[in-house]
Design goal:
The protein is built from 14 helices and no strands. The protein is mainly α and about 325 residues long. Helix 2 (about 30-50) packs antiparallel against helix 3 (about 70-95). It is globular. It has one domain (about 25-319). The chain binds ligand LTSJ6FE6 and adenine. Adenine binds near residues 53, 63 and 292. Adenine binds next to helix 2 and helix 14.
Length: about 325
């Protein structure tokens, strides 16, 4: 499926996500939270449809997964899209509070969204990290809006960093005596890797300092969307300590992926004429090793979403 056809097909959004704007302005049903949730949905659809994607579910194969397909991700995204509007609303509702109070407001929504995901996928973890990473971005947008602050990557990064600054200590460092309840906690106890929590506590550094600049360079160079997303995914895979990779293949598995992504970037990344066939070979190798950079896939969607949100707020004022 070409990216253009794929992008066009993305606009037949789930009914509840579409905003019908009647003719008379007085009854307009425009909603910023709903608009942001539609962008989050679009980010998830762009990510999962990007093909090929090494080790990950895409339109060609299920990567290193025997429990989920492209359809699983679409069903999952449809189930969780309403919660992204709630993240924005909750951010705005917490605008009068210090930013350090934001995460505790967002958490219950994230748990509900996870439950909706597991219900839609019959127990398969498709978007747990996506809910966390995109949920923080949506919550930050709501909080910034509520405080009439500029919605740009620096402000989004700082809101996330301040609201998650104690996450690693509170949930990982302080809990090493308890048995790990999740893969992420296990990876911390075994290897000291902080996973999604560490990424959030840094203010999504991999997204803001690596992925976003790389994606924007591609856009400035006039690179096709598919190539830009491939290049950005490689930048993330080369720089992100993805707990999924370590959970499946140990530190060796993580280093294998980081080194191969770095190698493809050294070949030129989006400038390299045979990038697609190299990505197909990379995909075959990760499937053979049962490795899947799920966290990196989430951060690709996050980078695209941040870029689109910043553009949206640059061009529009929403009161
Ligand atoms: C805060 C939590 C979300 C942390 O959860 P956990 O303790 O599990 O910690 P992590 O493993 O660190 O992260 C969970 C998911 O986050 C993605 N991820 C991994 N590394 C990173 C990273 N460095 N930066 C950002 N994100 C990262 C990853 O999610 C994706 O992969 C999953 C699919 O891959 P798969 O291999 O299939 O995963 P499994 O099924 O688990 O393994 P197999 O059995 O198949 O081998 C999928 O989730 C993708 O999204 C990590 O999996 C959590 O504790 C929490 O608080 N949740 C409550 C909800 C909440 O608070 N929401 C916040 C609202 S703002
Ligand atoms: N396309 C994908 N395949 C596997 N895990 C993922 N997590 C997020 N996106 C994913």
């Amino acid at each position: 499926m070409t990216m253009n056809v794929m992008i066009d097909s993305l606009f037949d959004l789930p009914q509840e996500a579409t905003v019908v704007v009647p003719s008379s302005p007085s009854t307009q049903t425009f909603s910023l939270p709903k608009l942001v949730s539609r962008l989050a949905y679009h980010a998830m659809m762009l990510e999962v449809h990007l093909t090929p994607k090494p080790g990950l579910v895409d339109a060609l194969n299920n990567g290193s997964h025997d429990d989920m397909t492209l359809a699983t991700f679409v069903v999952s995204a449809n189930a969780i899209v309403p919660y992204f509007a709630q993240f924005v609303d909750t951010g705005t509702a917490h605008a009068h509070l210090p930013v350090t109070a934001l995460l505790s407001g967002l958490r219950p929504i994230g748990v509900e969204a996870e439950q909706a995901m597991f219900s839609a996928t019959h127990g398969v973890n498709t978007h747990k990290g996506m809910i966390f990473n995109l949920g923080l971005i949506c919550g930050a947008v709501g909080w910034l809006q509520g405080n009439h602050l500029q919605v740009d990557e620096l402000h989004i990064k700082e809101v996330i960093r301040q609201s998650c600054q104690f996450l690693v200590y509170d949930e990982l460092k302080r809990c090493t005596q308890h048995a790990a309840a999740t893969a992420g906690e296990q990876m911390y106890q075994q290897y000291g890797l902080t996973g999604a929590r560490g990424e959030a506590a840094s203010g999504l550094t991999t997204v803001m300092n690596y992925a976003l600049p790389a994606y924007r360079e591609c856009l400035i160079e006039g690179v096709a969307t598919e190539q830009a997303l491939w290049h950005t995914l490689l930048v993330i895979m080369a720089n992100n300590d993805d707990s999924n990779l370590v959970h499946r293949g140990g530190i060796e598995g993580l280093r294998f992926v980081q080194d191969r992504a770095s190698y493809l970037l050294k070949l030129g990344g989006y400038r390299y004429p045979n990038l697609e066939s190299e990505l197909m070979a990379f995909d075959r190798d990760l499937i053979a090793k049962h490795l899947s950079p799920g966290g990196s896939a989430d951060l690709l969607a996050a980078a695209w979403l941040v870029h689109e949100l910043v553009q949206l707020f640059e061009n529009e004022s929403f009161g």
